[in-house]
């Protein structure tokens, strides 16, 4: 992997618009790549194996993804990092209700079974393939909108009382006290997954603790804009 250009994927994918049918075929390829990665590990996840599993020729596969590196980076970006919640309208009358609403949606997105399967496979490779960790770290540094927490905290008014660095730290605390702990439990499989009701209660208690540590000096506006 190219350690110095973690965002090269976006530029590479942007070289040509997807042809009709490309999107569906790319999804098949990514599904196959997850299965091969899970069974054989990163080093043995070859384009031959991926092409065979998804039932297409290597020529077609290389038309969709120009290299194994770009395929794997696309897998990480599309299946692990992308979030559809950046512009989510946080519903509720209080900061606690609005943050709890957002964190419940984030939990549903990040704890989806397909995402957890891929994350387990990637985590198992981190110690053997350092470039995976390098790419992931670089991606998060260069893509501040990957996850929506900072955006949500700004909309609640935290950017008026916290520096940019403090806002990053607050976002990490909020994630760790809520979704992060749920994700760790599901990844480690050290205890049964929480029921939807227990997950909701856990998130709300984490948000309550977060707001005690990071109190807003004035009531948040009723608008998310």
From TrEMBL:
Taxonomy, superkingdom: Bacteria
Gene3D superfamilies: Homeodomain-like (1.10.10.60), Tetracycline Repressor, domain 2 (1.10.357.10)
InterPro entries, sorted: Homeodomain-like_sf, HTH-type_TetR-like_transc_reg, HTH_TetR, TetR_C_Proteobacteria
Ranges where the HTH tetR-type domain occurs: 23-83
UniProt DNA-binding region: 46-65
SUPFAM superfamilies associated with the record: Homeodomain-like
UniProt keyword annotations, A-Z: DNA-binding, Transcription, Transcription regulation
GO molecular function, one term: transcription cis-regulatory region binding
PANTHER family for this protein: HTH-TYPE TRANSCRIPTIONAL REGULATOR BETI, HTH-TYPE TRANSCRIPTIONAL REGULATOR RUTR
The name this protein goes by in its record: Transcriptional regulator TetR
